[in-house]
# Entry
Amino acid sequence: MRFPAEPFRIKVVEPLRYVSREERARLLAGAGLNIFQVPADSIYIDLLTDSGTSAMSDSQWAGLMVGDESYAGSRNFYNLERAVREITGYHRMIPTHQGRMAENLLFSTLVRPGQIVPNNSHFDTTRANVEAQGAEALDLVIDEGLDPTFDHPFKGNLDVAKLERLFETHGREKIPLVMITVTNNSGGGQPVSIANARAVREVCDRYGVPLFFDACRFAENCYFIQEREPGYASKSVREIARELFACAVGCTMSGKKDGLVNIGGFLAFNDDSLAERVTNLLLRIEGFPTYGGLAGRDLEGMARGLNEVLSEDYLAFRINQVRNLGAMLDQAGVPIVKPVGGHAVYIDARRFLPHIPQSQFPGQCLVVVLYRDYGIRAVEVGSLMFGHRDPQTGQDVFPKLDLVRLAIPRRVYTSEQMRYVAQSVIEIHRERDAMRGLRLEYEAPVLRHFTARLRELEPATVQT
Ligand SMILES: Cc1ncc(COP(=O)(O)O)c(C=O)c1O
# Structure
């Protein structure tokens, strides 16, 4: 039998500051209704991201005290290298300060202008690092992965037929590598099956092109494989991880997710000559090869976190905490993306607020009320984040979906706090008809959602 609730007890607590509704309203108004501009210590439950927000264990904190800060040859490097080898089977591990530096190193070394890098869905930083090389970052997730209402066990799978066609059309010279993101963050934290990873590898082998994983949430992905993929129910998550990593030749990793640390990452593979080229670049832009961009103590925290994250008691708790939040919302009729992924619940804001048009940012309306009335921070992933004005036509262009992401930090919030989140969203849903749209008052030319300023529309100007 699994643990009935949290498989840990709390030894250290971080007190939260009580902030009244009036103060929250004032802070939000001063921030131009932009939740990124609100000080974090004025937030009760922060669901902005699951990245770098994990609680470390007593063993990880103890590991910090045995940090070896030697410039070269730190013992913590060897501990991390061993952990990565045992879990992935990759014998070359290059530490970096976080995931995006691993991406930078890999793409700067392998990708040339005019080439195409396919992925199930590129995460923002992966896309930006591919594009920085003058190449195209192409998303090839299966069609089911793009439909928020479609239930599929492996919605993160890469479409193998589309990949074949890409190789047939462009030839291998145009495609320096293929990536698969496990789980698929930009697609809602949806998992990828081993069968799919194998099929992609088979195509890559035929064309002589390497397959890499973006492995940020590999343990959560492997838990889904154990739960859902035929033939894996009796294998341990650790065994599944080894089998999954064997499908690729290497990976980039942000330790801020399934490394259970607040900072850190790495690049790992088996190719010694690639390691030499990457190391030359690492020395110039990140640090000496046995520390990358990290302190020795950070390497130790990540080495321990990578082993802890494979605990099946932990993973059962983790996946079910996220899933239960989704189930509470779903049962109350709140429209969410299904099935619930590994690290977050996504609310479908257009179905939640059908009377608020995309031009009035329905997702951000929900984010505003969640904070002002309940002290919860969520993030809009929709018209504010991805919408823009077409310079040619002068028309506003909106994304297909307007979502609000409730990302759950690892081992941080109790089930009672999650119930509070669910109740808050359900209450807002009941009162949704009274909610008003927003108008954009300031936007920066790039990544506007970080600094945008908005204002609530007067009731008379609300379009129905
Ligand atoms: C799938 C994926 N890849 C890469 C990254 C980048 O990692 P980092 O934030 O450590 O640079 C993230 C971060 O959220 C991610 O979710």
